[in-house]
Amino acid sequence: MSYQPDNIFAKILRGEIPNDTVYEDDEVLAFRDINAQAPVHVLVIPKGEYISLDDFTQGASAEVVGRFFQKVAEIARQLGVDGEGYRVIANTGHNGGQEVPHFHMHICAGRRLGRMIAQG
Ligand code: AMP
Q1: Which of 42, 71, 89, 92 sits most deeply, having the most CB atoms within 10 A of its CB?
Q2: Is any ligand 1 atom within 6 A of the Cβ of residue 94?
Q3: 3-state class of 28 per DSSP?
Q4: Ordered structural domains, the chain, with CATH
């Protein structure tokens, strides 16, 4: 599957759809999830066109990948959730439940999040 430039996060990056930005630099955009599953629910996306974690880690340089993950943790600190803790999730592909085919990491926090994987 090739990258689909009409996906919703590509539209957000092009400024065609509004978003609630919490962090932005030349490589990364972080914004609040429109359907928050926790009191804090932020999505972190690279600005490059990568479909998934698999695509990102194969297609981007080690430096870009490393900086991305450093920024995920930095954004969590900026959100003030590092003390009480948080969860990061990268749903990947069909069985992973990935709905938007632009790589993103969820940062979820603000309450005890319970079991890691729902049953059934
Ligand atoms: P995933 O299932 O991992 O692909 O997650 C996609 C996430 O994107 C879901 O949690 C959606 O609520 C979220 N989402 C979809 N459209 C938007 C949007 N326009 N702004 C913010 N979050 C969105």
Answers
A1: 42
A2: no
A3: strand
A4: 8-109 (3.30.428.10)
Summarised one tens digit per residue, pLDDT across range 25-83 is: 999 999 999 999 999 999 999 999 999 999 999 999 999 999 999 999 999 999 999 99
Q: Establish whether 106 is a catalytic residue.
A: no
Query: In testing the pocket of ligand 1, which one of 32, 43, 95, 106 has its CB within 8 Å of the most ligand atoms?
Result: 43
- pTM > 0.90: yes
Q: How far apart are CA 80 and CA 96, in angstroms?
A: 28
Is 96 touching ligand 1 by the criterion CB < 6 Å?
Answer: no
